[in-house]
Specification:
The protein is an alpha+beta fold and 485 residues long. The protein has a domain of 111 residues: 2-Layer Sandwich (Uridine Diphospho-n-acetylenolpyruvylglucosamine Reductase, domain 2), CATH 3.30.43. Helices cover 49% and strands 11% of the residues. The strands form 4 sheets. A 5-stranded mixed beta sheet has the order 1-2-8-5-3. Strands 4-12-9 form a 3-stranded antiparallel beta sheet. A two-stranded antiparallel sheet has the order 6-7. The longest helix is centred in the middle third of the chain and has 32 residues.
Length: 485
């Protein structure tokens, strides 16, 4: 259906394309006198977007690294001239030069989905002064400042992660022989995200939004064609539904805050925060920012939990090591006592297993940056205004950096034997290191702790097809045979 709708949309724009191609041919290219990176911009207008979105990201990147250069190549995706800087040296260069050469950039579909509060008639922002640095992502800025994601803040929330995981496993899997891992992983992570960001425990309200969040996640990197049947159309409708629900939540939160209730969540902070002129953030803007935060904290954690269940279920030897680690922690605690920060620090082997899961199935395929000022890398010039695509796909399964890269081997991360610098970067690095790294670590470990204490499991379809590219998903939802202990 997506391809059919895309074909219709291309037919609609073909006339304008025919006219524009003549203008394009006669127009001088300011980049023509520069030594640009090797590569191809692909087809006029759409570039290589089809290959990028509908092929595997690692294949898209790997094929071009082999064809053009292992260090750098150019392409055109999602309407933007884009450069991909590859390998550990590329990671290091990017992380070391954030805010100097690059700033955060959201692809146009993502901007449309999460910026509904911005009027299309709004004037562009004023140019930056030479001494100013570009602002980081607005949602990220909101949660960095109050310290919501600092260890001391997260440690207070860890017990809630523990109890929610226990309650949902009991409610949905107790007494069952066969279950599906992916739907529960999505529900748990969405409930955790909404509890953390919104301060709400209304599980029913949250559960009915799961499919809408899936649609948004897929639509963030899609062809921006708003016809029924397309990925972007579904994402747009889903965003409207979630936005309406969030506006109701915001009104309820304001009413609760007016009664003197404590403010211990990010939504409360957004409601009371002022800009430099003393104005509060409009409700529509709060809704869009919160939606972006929940999406970021939802899909990546759910994906990692799901594939963690797959790999551990296929390896009884790994399962036994994880279980022994968690039973030792449980034995040191009183009955019904929840996890504490010190307990998580003892889950070293479990974290190695999670790291290996993320290496083989990165929860985040990549992110975009915008080039602030022209620079040179590997002998090539990257012009101002181009976009840069950062991805883990240039190193995470490369045999140069990982021996037997297709093998699931948690021992790769043992102290003193870990991956070489800048070869394993699932959370990015530098100033834009994912601020939710520690949140994700605690959420996954809290779930795993409850899982291995209560259950052993087997994967029913080891060769189950993985669908989706920017958001890898087991086609059948990862069915498991469950054994209560």
């Amino acid at each position: 259906m997506e391809i059919l709708a895309l074909s219709i949309s291309l037919a609609v724009v073909i006339c304008s394309f025919v006219l524009s191609v003549f203008v394009f041919k006669g127009k001088s290219d300011n980049d023509s006198n520069k030594k640009l990176p090797p590569g191809s911009f692909g087809w006029p207008i759409i570039g290589e977007t089809i290959e990028f979105l509908f092929g595997k990201p690692e294949k898209f990147v790997g094929d071009r690294m082999r064809k053009y250069s292992p260090d750098i190549f150019k392409t055109k995706v999602l309407g933007e001239k884009t450069v991909v800087i590859c390998g550990p040296n590329g990671h290091k260069f990017l992380f070391a030069n954030e805010q100097k050469y690059f700033t955060a950039f959201r692809p146009h579909p993502m901007q449309r989905l999460f910026r509904s509060y911005k009027s299309k008639a709004s004037p562009p922002p004023p140019p930056m002064a030479a001494h100013q640095t570009p602002r980081e992502g607005e949602e990220v800025k909101v949660i960095r400042q109050p310290g919501f994601l600092k260890p001391e803040a997260l440690s207070r929330y860890l017990g809630k992660m523990d109890s929610i995981s226990h309650q949902l496993l009991q409610a949905h899997w107790e007494g069952k022989d066969e279950v599906k891992a992916y739907p529960l992983a999505k529900m748990i992570t969405l409930i955790l995200s909404c509890r953390f960001f919104l301060g709400t425990d209304n599980h029913e309200r949250i559960a009915r939004l799961v499919d809408h969040f899936d649609d948004i996640t897929l639509g963030m990197h899609s062809i921006m064609v708003n016809f029924p049947g397309t990925i972007f159309y579904k994402a747009n409708k889903a965003a409207a539904t979630i936005r309406k629900e969030l506006l109701d939540v915001i009104k309820e939160k304001k009413f609760t805050m007016a009664t003197g209730a404590p403010m211990q969540d990010i939504l409360s902070h957004m409601i009371v925060v002022n800009d430099p002129s003393g104005k509060h953030m409009p409700e529509a803007e709060i809704a869009d920012k919160i939606m972006g935060l929940i999406v970021a904290g939802y899909s990546t954690v759910a994906t990692t939990i799901t594939f963690l269940m797959k790999y551990v279920g296929e390896r009884p030897d790994i399962y036994e090591k994880i279980r022994a680690e968690h039973l030792e922690i449980a034995a040191s605690k009183k009955p019904e006592e929840l996890l504490e920060w010190e307990d998580v620090q003892k889950m070293k082997y479990s974290w190695n297993v999670i790291c290996e899961t993320m290496r083989l199935n990165p929860p985040l395929q990549g992110t975009f940056r915008e080039v602030l000022t022209e620079f040179t890398y590997a002998g090539y010039t990257i012009p101002k205004g181009w976009k840069l695509y950062w991805t883990v796909s240039t190193t995470n399964t490369n045999p140069t950096y990982f021996k037997d890269p297709e093998k699931f081997d948690p021992s790769r991360y043992d102290v003193g034997e870990g991956p070489a610098p800048y070869t394993y970067v699932p959370f990015g690095g530098g100033p834009r290191m994912c601020p939710g790294k520690e949140y994700a670590r605690l959420a996954i470990l809290a779930f795993l702790h409850n899982m291995v204490k209560k259950y052993k499991w087997e994967v029913l379809f080891p060769d189950e097809k993985v669908i989706g590219d920017m958001m890898p998903t087991p086609e059948k939802g990862l069915p498991l045979r469950l054994h209560s202990l």
